[in-house]
Amino acid sequence: LREAAETTNVMEKIVLNDIMQKKKKTLSWFDKIKKDPKERAQLDRFAYRLEPMLITAGRWKDIAIMYPDPIAELNKREEFAKAMEKTMHGRMGNYDPFAQGVGRLYAAYLSAGRTADAKKVALAALKKQDSANIKRELVLYAIDAGQARKDQYEWTKGDQKLTDALKEALDAKSGKGKDSKDSKAKSQSQSSPKSK
What we know:
Blueprint: H1 2-19, H2 23-33, H3 40-56, H4 60-65, H5 70-88, H6 97-111, H7 115-128, H8 132-144, H9 160-174, H10 180-191
Helix pairs in contact: 1-2, 1-3, 2-3, 5-6, 6-7, 6-8, 8-9, 9-10
């Protein structure tokens, strides 16, 4: 009973901070508990609320802290997407929660320096569903997280806009672009999941 009350209290604080535009308070709480093994259950419980806040704050590597097992998390995201599809009865349009979830996870692991886990996620996701949507989200979220890589070109085949966005991000990263800052800002606005 006590644990349920504490969970409700934390959830209320997270939601209230979100409503009141005080996300920094929630992120401050996250920073206090993120490496504490005793708080693992809290991270598991609230990861779905914390992940978007961390993305907005550009804290991609912190997302990976919440997901120690990449394949287990990938499977959770697949289950969520299937449940959502079932609930929405075909009304999801172009929204693909699995592809977006895979892209976010991949970008988070790359940002955290967990390249092997990022590759596991990408390969397992493409084995489950080898779609242009998943490949697109892998590349776009990697660009958003500042993790564009040459090996991602294999996922851009047949999509010139995506190839161009990746090239632009790689040029900006290496300082080859006309104006690296403008180039990076443009690729981020093009690749923003909100702009789709």
